[in-house]
Amino acid sequence: MNSELIPVGIVGAGPVGMALAARLASFGIPSVLFERDPELRKQGSKACLIQGDVLETLDKFGCAETIGAEGVTWTTARTYVRGKEIRAAEYPRRIGYGPFVNISQFRIEQLLLEKIEADPLCEVRWAHEITGAEQDGEAVTVSADTPKGPRDYRCRYVVACDGVRSPMRTFTGVEWTGYSHRDRFLITDLKVTLPLAKERHFHYDPPFNPGRQLVMHPQPNDIWRIDWQLAPETDIEAERADGRFEERVRKVIGDVDFEIDWVSTYRFHQRVVEKFRVGRIFFAGDSAHSLPPYGSRGMNSGIQDADNLAWKLALVMEGKAEDALLDTYHDERYAAARENLAVTEATIKFMVPPNLVRRLARKTLLALSQPFQGARDKVNSGRMAEPHTYVDSPVIQSGGLHPLLGAFAPDARITAPGAGRVRELYGSGFTVLYFAQDRQAARAFAERALADTRGLDVRLVVVLREGELAVPTAGSAEGLPEGVTVLRDRDSVLRETYHAPDGTCLIVRPDGHVGALADPARPELFAETLARCAAATAPAATGTPARERVATAA
Question: Which residues pair with 415 in a beta bridge?
Fold first, then answer.
């Protein structure tokens, strides 16, 4: 990439930075990643779980299928107290991905790197340590130590994906609010064959870590990740030197052969930046928020940051949306971070009670959890990650007009060219789902609505009841405008999934969240409703319709 002005500079080539680069490329936006390491380094499992809805983001640029195939998909989370199981939380297996897939962060990074190295719109500059950043009204200048000496790079926008110790926060003076926990935790990846179900196993006060917690997660290739809460005085290096570490491991896994794949200790954080946007600089992933591993909210929320920001940057850089759209990145993702912090804070206070009263209350609850169901339900072992619902965003329609507004759009089986699930229709632009009463209503709305899309990429999906439309032999939906995708809703599957009686018209954003409820009875107002979802600039323009399709909701 030889242009003088880099469109988007991304600091940090971890999973969030690389996901952002790949997602920007899917919109035609070039980017350069600046990574201080000379190459991709293996660092154990680190983030070891990706949530199914987050895999949908990676699916938009072709990285999800391999992760889903290689990873360990699980549906049961077991909780134990003093070695006895008290609860098994079941997460229904669903179409698409997930609900949860265990795979190492390093493997995800490998697959993302393969993707961006093959994309001419993406470039990684290794061994580039960013040492400073200054911005003006036109661009951001980042200074870097490189293999060829100090260099300055001018970028139209810069996204900091440089982790918990983010230098970019220092350069911009953004406050890092919250705290770091005093207790330390040990992560060990073991290659071992165990007679355990490949599920999540969370232990309170087990005999092999008395008075503290331990969690076990299966990984691909017979790797088990074990997280211990440590006593303050624990010295893991001394344990490894004198043999106590092997004793620690064997107390958990028994007398079986094992190999140590990775060992690390850490302190977790409860932190968030006060601003996700500072002029032309944005923060994403661990540079914006740092969370404990319980519930697996770190990398998952970081990739959702990237997906949220990518489509907004693309629209603004293409001149299709006002700069104010970029402000909504803070509005939406800061709210998501605050929700994650609230969930993990509740878990932390249960796991590590901050005072005597809470310690006694937890001790009593754990004692009662085995004989009493009511007590079991109150044992907090970490609520698993899920997408945030944007309930207070300037570009999400308010007023409680529909239960899915702001939510990540649900999935359902369909039969369509190139798509077997409705989520596969989302991602390249805005998708309009119109649940039409009949073909005549669909034609009337489509003709007027598609006449003005404010220059935005819009895909209109008309959902007709089965029988309303015979499958045309010529492959076109006769009577409907070119560019309309038609789904026949067998057994009203989509109507039930989307809480959509006849006449419902929902606008789904490129990141898969439902942005607005349009009024098909007033198609002349459709452009205005659409424009509010994107802070669109064009007063009137005609969108480029996609090829017409006919399909079936299964």
Answer: 552
> The tokens of 430 are what?
């805005």
Q: What's the mean pLDDT when you consider all of the chain? A: 91
DSSP 8-state class, residue 153: E
State the Cα–Cα distance between residues 107 and 71, nearest whole angstrom: 10
Question: Does the structure show a pLDDT above 60 at 552?
Answer: no
DSSP notation for 500-540 = --TT-EEEE-TTSBEEEEE-TT-GGGHHHHHHHHHTB--SS
**What three-state secondary structure class fits 421?**
strand
Neighbouring CB atoms inside 10 A of 208's CB total 17
Where residue 491 falls among pLDDT bands split at 50, 70, 90? confident
Residue 82 pLDDT greater than 90, yes or no: yes
Residues 120, 127: contact at Cβ < 8 Å? no
**Quick one: pLDDT band at residue 476, thresholds 50, 70, 90?**
very low
Under DSSP, the state recorded for 493 is: H
Burial, 159: exposed, middle or buried (Cβ in 10 Å; 0-12, 13-18, 19+)? buried
C-alpha to C-alpha distance for 396 and 534, rounded to whole angstroms: 9
Task: Round the CA-based radius of gyration of the chain to a whole number and report it.
Answer: 25
Residue 61's closest CA among 424, 320, 318, 543? 424
Q: Dump pLDDT digits (tens) for 134-162.
A: 999 899 999 999 999 999 999 999 999 99
pLDDT band for 97, please (50, 70, 90 cuts): very high
Q: Rounded to whole angstroms, how far apart are CA atoms 310 and 306? A: 6
pLDDT, tens digit, for every residue of 359-398?
A: 899 889 999 998 888 888 899 888 898 999 999 999 999 8
- End-to-end Cα separation, the chain, in angstroms: 45
Peptide linkage before 99 cis (omega within 30 of 0): yes
- What letter represents residue 63's amino acid? C
- State CA 484 to chain mean position distance: 29
DSSP string, 205-268: S-TTSTTSEEEEEEETTTEEEEEEEPPTT--HHHHHHHTHHHHHHHHHH-S---EEEEEEEE--
Q: Per residue in 218-241, is it b (16+ CB within 10 Å) or e — as a string?
A: bbeeebbbbbbbbeeeeebeebee
Which amino acid is residue 421, in one-letter code?
A: R
pLDDT of 521 strictly over 70:
yes
Give the whole-angstrom CA distance, residue 271 versus residue 287: 10
- Sheet containing 269-273: which strands, arranged edge to edge? 176-180, 269-273, 289-290
* Cβ contacts of 208 within 8 Å, gap of 6 or more: 214, 248, 251, 252
Q: Convert the pLDDT of each residue in 46-70 to its tens digit.
A: 889 999 999 999 999 999 999 999 9
